[in-house]
Design goal:
With 818 residues, the chain is mainly β. Helices cover 4% and strands 47% of the residues. The strands form 18 sheets. It has an eight-stranded antiparallel β-barrel. Strands 3, 10, 13, 15, 19, 21 and 22 form a seven-stranded antiparallel β-sheet that branches. It has a six-stranded mixed β-sheet with strand order 46-47-48-49-50-55, with no helix packed on it.
Length: 818
């Protein structure tokens, strides 16, 4: 159902549903009331639109003659429902018999259980006036080891009414069942023999229009689904009035005595197929290598003559129509199936005058120029008189070029030809390209997530232009290039524009003027933006994310194929910590860093990507992909935890600084977004946690005196001038970072305000850790000290202690010793 809905959304129409049957089986099932029930009560359930062979017969002593043979099971790919048909057994003693499991669009019936008058099958169907070419479905088939019976698919279309006299239609144990006339019995319509069957003569007949009968003889692999597409055979050109489709776990028209108990067939995603392609194509005098899925043919050496063109559609129904465009020399063959879907073939014949054969910009041919099939091109640069050179197809034709400075579009045409053929060349300004992930949606549904550049021009008077070239919509194909001019940009990089635009391209011209609202931001060399476009009341959203984005918000989008959509979105993203937020629903299994509503199966956080969590959620599994060598480390994570949960020997919180000594105290519980020192006695490459509440990432800084302990969620944090835990000569210190030193995500660092600290001491609560009372500056970064006159007064120093009071130069900066 979801797949069909996507097709409908992207180019189908509501009329398309009339030519289909309810073959997804996903709607809530209905109660089954067997046609010839002995008591008129319900027996099991059946899918909407279908009837099953469940039975309510008679009771014999204590044995129940009531049974269900149709069951609701999990559908293909674990989605929705499928139909399980399993042959069963009713009756008892000498009256016991095996019963076939089948569903149909008509009415199942059976009679005379346990007597020599046994018979059954289906009669009737549903109103249906279309002509499908085939039926496709997915199935799982399991037969018992001793079974030689196939499973069966039967379908047929007919018009008129078939009537058979005196058919017994009630269930009895013995005696003669009551009879009545039966209309549109399956065997009568299909011309099957009535030998061994019950009932009188066929007194009225209609016309069989089409039918198919297919046997499934092999078992499917365990857990696997097989696909089948079975064509109809048409025996009449008349229009059908009704259809019946039958799926059976047995040989449907075989002997009842051959039915094998427990043989089963599971069916899902049943769909009628309507072909919309050609079966043959030829043109007198031309050698055409016709292939059904090849849509374009070059016949430019021929002048088109309608009487020489021959073609035949593959479908029984539908239409195939040829249209000739004299200006372009193209014959368009549109083949439309009865479901409304179309395929278009293009035949290029010799063109009439009015065409351009090539266009060059400043002597260089325009890239991608294709004569006659595309009239929209873009170049980067400024228009000057004579910069465009257009060569007409017809020698000597007078080419004219008109340039509109407002739209920056040059229009090229040959007016004297009388043909309204125009080529357009867009002069785009030079722009900086931002490699981006585009998440495109329509009417609240996800369409696609291409990776492409989005251009931003240089700022002029607090304005920029945005350029999104080669914009496409799934189902509609290439739309064109989006240009948004005079976008306001603020000092902090925020951009915004509300406008009416026309997308530059063949399809864009057809779409007309489109309202647009653009918001976004340029920050740290990356672009984030949202384009909200309205087309005939339908909302189209284009969310632009940098490839290093920390999150992608899909909460407002419906993902028809969840796993495939997520995979497409993740492709090319560079941040391993990126979180994808989706709407509330079934928790996505087997997917990492995907939040469904407020639940996430697996959250991976590593040091090599920025972390930003905008909405809290609960994660079943949390992995911190960071190697902790034995010893002390800084840590800051967006969830509450304990040293034990992390696998650490202990954790200590920053509790004080008296100007010389940093004081830490042991903690048994660690708050979210708060920095700590943690001790690992043995190296740990991966920290795993279970059932964890993840908080919004708002790091909590801890300040004592002029020292602040800061949690870090930035990958490759520049540590120059900042302090962190480091190791030198086998000992650990709190050192000031030098040029090129960095810190990964989930770490923490110290800042010192006011006068520089050249030596720090650290006091950790407890003993036996092997790191208590360590001099933070000992063995750390060294520096040379100079007087203001440039005289070196100390080499390779680690502290300024002991120097006379005064002002000194350290690493090019003034430093006061008091």
């Amino acid at each position: 159902m979801k797949r069909l809905f996507t097709l409908l959304l992207l180019g189908g129409s509501l009329t398309g549903w009339a030519q289909q049957v309810n073959g997804t089986f996903d709607e809530p099932w209905e109660k089954c009331f067997p046609y010839n029930s002995c008591d008129g009560k319900e027996q099991g359930t059946e899918p909407v639109g279908w009837q099953c062979s469940n039975t309510r017969g008679v009771k014999l002593m204590s044995t129940i003659g009531y049974a269900s043979f149709t069951f609701q099971v999990t559908g293909r790919e674990g989605q929705g429902y499928a139909v399980q048909l399993k042959n069963g057994e009713t009756g008892a003693l000498s009256f016991k018999s095996n019963v076939p499991a089948y569903i149909c669009l008509g009415t199942p019936w059976a009679t005379s259980v346990g007597t020599n008058k046994s018979d059954g099958g289906a009669f009737g169907g549903i109103d249906f006036t279309y002509r499908p070419d085939a039926i496709e479905f997915y199935y799982q088939r399991t037969a018992t080891a001793s079974s030689t019976q196939p499973a069966t698919v039967v379908a047929y279309l007919w018009n008129g009414t078939y009537v058979q006299k005196d058919v017994p239609q009630s269930l009895v144990i013995s005696g003669t069942p009551a009879t009545s006339d039966m209309t549109n019995r399956d065997r009568n319509i299909l011309g099957k023999t009535l030998d061994g069957c019950q009932g009188g003569t066929v007194t009225q007949e209609g016309t069989l229009v089409a039918s198919l009968e297919h046997s499934i003889t092999t078992n499917t692999a365990s857990g696997e689904w097989d696909y089948a597409c079975i064509p109809f055979t048409y025996t009449s050109n008349t229009k059908p009035e009704k259809i019946n489709i039958i799926f059976a776990a047995n040989d449907y028209f075989g002997a009842r005595t051959a039915i094998v108990k427990d043989d089963q067939l599971i069916v899902d995603d049943v769909r009628l197929v309507y072909y919309n392609t050609l079966k043959s194509l030829s043109y007198e005098g031309a050698s055409i290598d016709f292939k059904e899925n090849t849509l374009s043919y070059d016949l430019s050496q021929f002048k088109y003559e309608a009487t020489k063109l021959s073609f035949e559609k593959k479908a029984v129904g539908g239409t195939a129509q040829a249209t000739y465009d004299e200006a372009s020399g193209i014959v368009t063959l549109k083949v439309t199936g009865e479901d409304g879907n179309s395929t278009i073939y293009s035949l290029q014949f010799k063109k009439v005058t009015g065409e351009i054969s090539s266009i060059s910009y400043n002597g260089t041919p325009i890239e991608g120029f294709t004569q006659g099939t595309n009239h929209y091109y873009a170049v980067t640069g400024e228009y000057t008189e004579g910069c465009l050179t257009a060569t007409p197809q017809d020698e000597g034709a007078n080419v004219q070029c008109y340039y509109d400075a407002t739209t920056r579009i040059a229009t090229i045409s040959i007016p004297e030809s009388g043909m309204d053929i125009k080529y357009y060349v867009k002069f785009a300004e030079k722009a900086t390209g931002y490699n981006s992930k585009l998440v495109i949606g329509m009417a609240g549904g996800f369409l696609s997530a291409p990776t492409q550049e989005v251009g931003i021009t240089s700022e002029k008077e607090s304005k920029v232009d945005l350029q999104l070239t080669n914009f496409s919509l799934e189902g509609l194909g290439h739309i064109g290039d989006i240009y948004v001019y005079d976008v306001a940009i603020s000092p902090d990089g925020s951009i915004s524009k509300t406008d009416n635009i026309t997308i530059f391209g063949e399809m864009g011209a057809m779409l007309g003027i489109l309202p647009l609202k653009l918001t976004g931001k340029l920050s740290n060399g990356e672009l984030s933006a949202t384009l909200n476009i309205t087309w005939e009341g339908m909302a189209i959203t284009v969310n632009v994310y940098p490839l290093s984005t920390t999150s992608v918000d899909l909460k407002a989008m419906v993902l028809s194929d969840f796993a495939t959509s997520i995979s497409q979105i993740k492709q090319d993203l560079t941040n391993p910590n990126c979180i994808i937020y989706t709407a509330d629903g079934t928790v996505a299994t087997g997917l990492e860093n995907v939040v469904t509503g407020t639940a996430c199966e697996t959250l991976n956080l590593g040091k090599d990507g920025n972390i930003s969590i905008s909405n809290g959620f609960n994660a079943t599994n949390v992995n911190i992909n960071r190697t902790f060598a034995s010893g002390w480390h800084t840590i800051c994570v967006p969830f509450e935890t304990t040293p034990e949960a992390l696998g650490a020997a202990q954790a200590q919180a920053f509790t004080g600084f008296d100007g010389k000594i940093l004081t830490f105290e042991k903690v048994t519980a660690m708050s979210a977004n708060t920095p700590y020192l943690v001790l690992f006695e043995n190296e740990k490459a991966l920290v795993k946690l279970k059932n964890t509440a993840i908080s919004v990432t708002v790091p909590t800084s801890v300040t004592h005196g002029n020292v602040t302990f800061v949690g870090n969620y930035e990958a490759g944090k520049n540590m120059e001038g900042l302090y962190g835990v480091a190791e030198k000569a086998g000992e650990q210190y709190i050192m000031r970072g030098g040029a090129g030193s960095t810190l990964g995500s989930t770490g923490a660092y110290f800042t010192v305000s006011g006068s520089e600290a050249n030596s720090l001491r650290i006091r950790l609560e407890g003993t036996g850790t092997g790191i208590s009372d360590v001099e933070a500056g000992k063995g750390g970064q060294t520096f040379d000290v100079y007087s203001l006159n440039g005289i070196k007064v100390r080499s390779q120093a680690t502290t300024t202690e002991g120097l006379p009071k005064g002002i000194y130069l350290i690493n090019g900066k003034k430093h006061i010793v008091k």
